[in-house]
Design a protein that fits this description.
This protein is an alpha/beta fold. Helices cover 38% and strands 13% of the residues. The protein folds into 2 domains: 176 residues, Glycogen Phosphorylase B (Rossmann fold, 3-Layer(aba) Sandwich); 165 residues, Rossmann fold. The chain contains 14 helices and 14 strands. Helix 11 packs across helix 13.
Length: 401
Amino acid sequence: MITILSISQNYHITGGSDGVFFRTNSILTEKGHTVIPFTAASPKNLETPWSSYFPSAADFDHPNLKDIGMYIYSRNAAKAVEHLIKDHHIDIAHLHIYYGKLTASILEPLNKAGIPIIQTLHEYKLICPVYTLISNGRICEACKGKNYIQALPRRCNRGSLSRTALSVAESYVSRFAGSQTKINHFIAVSNFTRDKMIEMGIASSKISTVYNPTEIFPETVNSEPGKYLLYFGRIERIKGIFTLLEAITSLKTIQVKIVGDGNGRGEMEEYIKNKNLDHVTYLGFRSGSELVKLIKESLFVVLPSQWYEPFPLTILESFSHGKPVIGSNIGGITEQIVDGSDGFLVPPGDALSLKEKILWMVDHPEQTRLMGQVGREKASKLFNSEQYYQSIMTIYNRLIG
């Protein structure tokens, strides 16, 4: 058995990458390995005996000049991880999203200690200063994986020159500090992500695809057709939320529930109000048993993304509860949904195509239910915890030697 230093920015769940971080830790612990978490300190963190090692991080809510410096390169994080690895034997370090709050400063102490490092790539930070390969609402690959300065004239970070300049500076500092060279191996969460990273300069020998895992619970299947279509995830334009709203504007008899939070929340609520979409219910952020109940009682789930989704957990969670998904024909989504079998694929941004598939599913509730069963069976076979464990252990063992 080995000891893994598991690194992420949060010791609480705010999104899919946090969920994978905790799920990975749980799987490894259940197999008898020792997992030591290392994240930024936060009052939102769950309790852990390792929290005394967690460094303070930049304040993203009310930043000052010191916070800006800590966002680019955190000496606190470097000292904290150095302290931890002096106190405890570590066989391998597994990074998730560590930048922003911990920064690439942590890589040098791990390298000096001779600890192999792998990183799961949950988005495109290695090759894009704003992580998404999106600029002003459109797919953008202008930086070509390393020329981050290209983001400045495009103001890729929320249309702001100052925000973009900070993102560009952080990306160059991170690269100089070893975000590519000091990490021994990368895990892509989809073949699409792997291919895109290789296209942008990452050596093919240095990156493997390992699909994220999901849990299948026998008691979670609802044998009755659901009552509404469900969207759950971040509320942002790139997630296609406004394509969904456009598609269902005239479908007044179909109940729609929207769950999540994000930068597009205010704009979305204004749209719903102005268009008198009384059949749309926005429920805010939900998680745990509340979210499970909403998924189970839905007829199907919609994920109309307009960016290169690496491997959205929304689809895995929906399949695990026996619900089919209408998703965009883009990114890693195409490796999850088989069109016409466990859901439908539609062109991103195409509200008319999305509307047609929504109407088909509503008009064919029993066939829709059966599609959900197909998705559940596929998730059970292809995206289970055991396969995930065997895949990452193969990488661990190769690096540890």
